[in-house]
Amino acid sequence: MDERKRAALQVMERLEQAGFAAYLVGGCVRDELLGRQPQDYDVATEAHPYKVQEIFPRTVPTGLQHGTVTVVQQGIPVEVTTFRVEEGYEDRRRPSQVAFVSSLKLDLARRDFTVNAMARDRHGKLIDYFSGVQDLEAQVIRTVGEPLERFREDALRMLRAARFVAQFGFSLDDKAKRAIEQLKQESRFLSVERVVSELEKMWRMPTPSPGMGILFETGLIAALPPFYQWIDESKPAADRLERFDWVQDRIVRWSYLLSLCGTGEAVLESRLTQLKLANRDKEAIIDCLKLGSKWERQGEEEWKRLLYRFGILALKRAAQLAELLGRRQVDDPDEAKLEEWWQAMPVKQTQDLPITGTELIRHVGKKAGPWVGKTLAYLAEQAALQHIPNEREALLKEGCQIGAKYSQ
Ligand SMILES: Nc1ccn([C@@H]2O[C@H](COP(=O)(O)OP(=O)(O)OP(=O)(O)O)[C@@H](O)[C@H]2O)c(=O)n1
């Protein structure tokens, strides 16, 4: 048995010994029924958080305001959440409050989708008040009860619906879909981080296109922060959503989505900043869009120059984006060709040169200065493109001429 599951079951047993009901809930029950490996095993209990802290010697108050305490059971963290319902969600600008309740049924009733609203007791008995199993079998994402209510409690659930559609290849219940169309503007108050984190989960799926389909068909995409600032709902950007499934790389998927949102070079940086992506991702997306959206036929020499300047990963990603954007021609180099050129390149960066700056300074006979770096960069590119051999003598000879020029 998975050691995280064993730890969760031990925590449940201890809670029961102390007189409190406890169950496995949410994603783990769903995933096991689907024959998938759960991400984590969450426990729900009737014990109040302070009781949980009292019962277990090692706990971390990871989300006390939501009733969540992490119990460290033999070194393994187990999230234990007290039965609760959301409250006070009328004002979307204020985070919702929670109220603790005494029954599992009430706790499950406030959950988002029927497939996420099942529980299992310590002995393996399934508790399914809202026909989650039936919906798993019918492969449909349906809210627990009234979709308008569930989505008002937390607008992120509209995006989660799209994500689960992508994750399981299920369809979305019609009533839920209509509720998204009606309530999508409520998602404007979500934080960018929560939106981006759901999209990232979508990018981990082999086929995100059904989920992207929901986002574009319902117009939800144009209401999500920060997208609502960029796209006009009257112009749904995508009739090409199935193309999201052609590639697996999240950088290419981000780049394609940005390009469907009409992101030109002038606004690219500011949009990436609004998305709050990590700098490394930002740079990779900038390169991908720069190379992929201007992908054009060129000679071998020029491809190799781009390879040297941007690196193999950026070129492969750009080739994929160019394919999605319909810019690739049949005789453009494919990924195998790019890889072959890259492998054959004797120098891939300045540091690969067999000469150093100190040697160059000695040979040129000038004082150190910015010219040294410039000369080495020039020599490296020339050697990469095999215009000069990657050998000390030849490089120092060429370096003397160029160095003398750059140091003037
Ligand atoms: N906005 C939300 C988020 C979560 N949940 C409930 O909390 C559980 C755990 O949420 P989370 O860990 O975010 O998602 P999982 O369903 O576990 O899915 P995954 O692990 O695949 O992200 C969900 O199953 C669901 O019952 C909810 O009702 N509404």
Automatic annotation (TrEMBL):
Q: Which residues form the CCA-adding enzyme C-terminal domain?
A: 248-397
Domain tRNA nucleotidyltransferase/poly(A) polymerase RNA and SrmB- binding stretches: 169-227
Record's keyword terms, sorted: Magnesium, Metal-binding, Nucleotide-binding, Nucleotidyltransferase, RNA-binding, Transferase, tRNA processing
Q: Which GO terms describe its molecular function?
A: CCA tRNA nucleotidyltransferase activity
Give the required cofactors: Mg(2+)
Q: Where is the Poly A polymerase head domain?
A: 22-142
Q: Does the keyword Iron apply?
A: no
Which SUPFAM superfamilies does the UniProt entry name for this protein? Nucleotidyltransferase (SSF81301), Poly A polymerase C-terminal region-like (SSF81891)
Q: What Enzyme Commission number(s) apply to this enzyme? A: 2.7.7.72
Q: Which residues cross the membrane?
A: none
| A Pfam family that the UniProt record links to this protein | PolyA_pol_RNAbd
Which NCBIfam families does the record match to this protein? PRK13299.1
**Record family assignment:** Belongs to the tRNA nucleotidyltransferase/poly(A) polymerase family.
Its protein name is: CCA tRNA nucleotidyltransferase
The organism's taxonomic lineage, starting at the top: Bacteria, Bacillati, Bacillota, Bacilli, Bacillales
